[in-house]
Design goal:
Largest sheet: 8 strands, antiparallel
Helix content: 25-40%
Low-confidence stretches: none
Shape: globular
Strand content: 15-25%
Number of helices: 5
Mean pLDDT: 85
Distance between the termini: 36 Å
Order of helices and strands: EHEEEEEHHEEEEEEHH
Radius of gyration: 23 Å
Length: 217
């Protein structure tokens, strides 16, 4: 992070979109991308046909919802298992199958895990997530989820699979900024062989001597 850099909620959303695209593209051996535009929404909702959500907390709180159409869910499910060597005749044929929900939940867990690891490292904060929940939703039903956020902002981004099936990511989080302070120098990894060679040569300073004393060398 550079000095005075500000990371806001939309920057965090972009990182989430990249994690979703990267993980799904890799696991399905296909191209899955997101739109270049984001939509402001009033509230996140679980929508037809297959809705998945997870709540995260820690350095900031938020809610991730992914609403898959039946076509998108089945394409991702099939591509994922086929790429792992699963025989086609053993695959579920309906998106309402428990197996499809389980696989999509597993993939969402991977997407959020990738996102959390990325954000935790870049923003130097700690975040934990709830186990993703999958629901098959009737077309006449939408569900709202209350994540108890302070001054929440909500966004919606569309994704497209390689076969042009659409699904949507809805994201809500605390309205917060991360502001970069002065740059902190990263510690270099010390090679044990270099340490021993330096110690043996006699060309080391008091700091190095103190290090050797602590290491018992």
């Amino acid at each position: 992070m550079q000095p005075s850099q500000v990371i806001n909620s939309d920057d965090i959303l972009l990182k989430l979109c990249r994690s979703v695209s990267q993980i799904l593209s890799t696991t399905t051996a296909s191209h899955i991308g997101h739109a270049g535009m984001v939509q402001r929404i009033g509230q996140t909702r679980l929508r037809p046909d297959l809705g998945c959500f997870s709540i995260f907390d820690g350095g900031f709180s938020g809610l991730v919802v992914i609403n898959f159409s039946a076509g998108a869910a089945m394409e991702i499910y099939r591509r994922y298992l086929l790429s792992m060597g699963m025989p086609e005749e053993e695959l579920a044929i309906k998106y309402t199958s428990d197996e499809v929900a389980n696989v999509m939940g597993e993939l969402m867990n991977q997407m959020l895990g990738h996102f959390i690891n990325l954000v935790s490292k870049e923003l130097q904060t700690s975040i934990s997530q709830s186990q993703p929940k999958m629901l098959t939703i009737n077309r006449e039903l939408t569900l709202s989820i209350d994540a108890n956020l302070d001054e929440p902002i909500a966004r919606r981004v569309s994704f497209r699979t390689e076969n042009n099936n659409i699904f949507y990511l809805e994201f809500a989080m605390d309205n917060t900024d991360f502001i970069g302070l002065e740059t902190v120098a990263e510690e270099e990894d010390l090679d044990p062989d270099d340490i021993l060679a330096l110690h043996g040569s006699g060309h080391h300073d008091d700091v190095t001597e103190d290090l050797f004393d602590k290491l018992g060398i």
